[in-house]
Amino acid sequence: MTKDRNTRDPNPPLLEIDINGIMGLIPHRYPFLLVDRLTAIVPGQSAVGIKNITMNEFFFPGHFPNHPVMPGVLIVEALAQTAGVLVMYSRGEKAYNELVYFTSIENARFRRTVVPGNVLQLKVNKERNRGPIWKFSGQAMVGSELAAEAVFSAMIVEKEE
Asked: Which of 28, 63, 111, 112 is catalytic?
């Protein structure tokens, strides 16, 4: 069965959301914006984010001097931000008056260090959503190696004026 040419999907799959698009969807800004772009987006279902890790990251001078390692909690935050962009994009125009808050982390596991020069691929998949609560599984990859994984939830709330 083919779609009628006059019927448009209100949220067609995108190949990429750049940094400006990300900043239009979530409120995070430097130094706490931890995703550079999104690729392979399936609205309401999954997305892949990219974070380029450089020596200029704000956390490297203290974590750890002479042996820079990205903190695991920030890897999970990068996964959550990727999911947040997916949620806001998926909600379309409704998202202009909403925020997504991180509400829980479960089963976080850290498998390898993430260091300057790595490209972190942030894969998120919606497990379910009920009302304002969305639950995701996520994997952070460096090349073909699993760096971290977690299950996490977020809640959509209306912006306060």
From this structure: 63
